[in-house]
Amino acid sequence: MFTKYGPQARTVLDALLEKYRDEGVLNLDDTNILLIPPLSLLGTRVELIRAFGGKPGFEQAVHELQDALYQETA
């Protein structure tokens, strides 16, 4: 799934995955998560969301990530 996104978007998804791995279940599609390190170090919330083409693209990418995670654990 990572291959369909640009480098910055992939970096954001990777950081979200690390955050999920370190802290367990999080509301990953809440854009406020982008304000928390290490995600906040990657750029502003607007810049990071823009990497996905906007908020709907960000939310879709996060949902795809969550679906992939839950398929692996099922």
Please provide a written account of the structure.
The mean pLDDT is 88. The chain is mostly helical. It has helices at 7-23, 45-50, 55-73. The radius of gyration is 11 Å and the shape is globular. The two termini are 18 Å apart.
Topology:
Elements: H1 7-23, H2 45-50, H3 55-73
Number of strands: 0
Helix content: 55-70%
Strand residue percentage: under 5%
Rg value: 11 Å
Largest sheet: none
The arrangement of helices and strands along the chain is: HHH
Mean pLDDT: 88
Unreliable spans are: none
Number of helices: 3
Classification by helices and strands = mainly alpha
Shape label = globular
Distance between the termini: 18 Å
Task: Compose a concise summary of this entry.
The chain has three helices and no strands.
Distinctive features:
74 residues; mainly alpha; globular
